[in-house]
Amino acid sequence: MTEQVDPFRAIADPTRRSMLDLLAERGTLTVGELAAAFPELVASGISKHLMTLRAAGLVRARKDGRNQHYEIDRDGWRAAFAPWVQRYGDYWSTALERLSDATVADDPGRTTD
């Protein structure tokens, strides 16, 4: 069984963030397609990054013949980050209300309705 990886640690690496960006932009990609986007990395480096992202629950893989297809795991992202985002939800709600109030104050003819 694969060891669980902290999703914040997984996205701390710039190469893994770039891989996630590619998957978000292009959808499902094979390991070869991902490797082509990172010519400075050897195949084992690509695989190691993908294993870390899988262990964090941020991507999932599907085997199709000899190819491994990777894609963003939306449910994994939700499970990994929703509790953290929710913790700060009140702050953002309050901050957005203050921003709205400030905008209305700058333009007396404008309402928040």
UniProtKB/TrEMBL annotation:
InterPro entries: ArsR-like_HTH, HTH_ArsR_DNA-bd_dom, HTH_MetalResp_TranReg, WH-like_DNA-bd_sf, WH_DNA-bd_sf. It comes from the Bacteria. The keyword Cytoplasm does not apply. Keywords: DNA-binding, Transcription, Transcription regulation. Gene3D superfamilies: Winged helix-like DNA-binding domain superfamily/Winged helix DNA-binding domain. GO terms for molecular function: DNA binding; DNA-binding transcription factor activity. Pfam families: HTH_20. Residues 1-103 form the HTH arsR-type domain. PROSITE patterns: HTH_ARSR_2. This is Transcriptional regulator. The lineage of its organism: Bacteria, Bacillati, Actinomycetota, Actinomycetes, Micrococcales.
